[in-house]
Amino acid sequence: MALWGAVLGHGNLVYHAAGWQEGGLTASFEKFILDVEMIQHMIEFLKPIEMNEGELALDALGAVPTGGHFFGEPHTLERYSTAFYQPIVSNWQNYEAWVEAGALDATARATKVWKKALEEYVEPEMDASVREELETYVAKRKEEIGVGEP
What are residue 20's phi and psi, to 5 degrees? Predict the structure, then answer.
């Protein structure tokens, strides 16, 4: 939540945000996923409100009689699947449904997300000469700083 200060203060570059704990002394894949969700919430919150005929839906409002509902209206059906932010981890079930589904807390759900992301990861293609240059550079830097020595 400390990121809100930077966001609302119009910061445009934040170096260390997602996944950090204890001032950067440790990191967590679960916290990374939870932080990304919070950042996405912030982005959604800050999106400008569109003001046009489609968004105002005055025709749809006028078409539904008193005591009726909007769920069957074409205007609602056209927008329903994209009208709301879809969270990565947050669970919006009621308590009973949450318990019935296994009562997974946010940490358990975040663990599933990062494990699935790693399972599905496909390394991007890289030119062999570029990879060789990078590996040579990394090996040289490791030697210079003494990494890997007993």
Answer: -75, 140
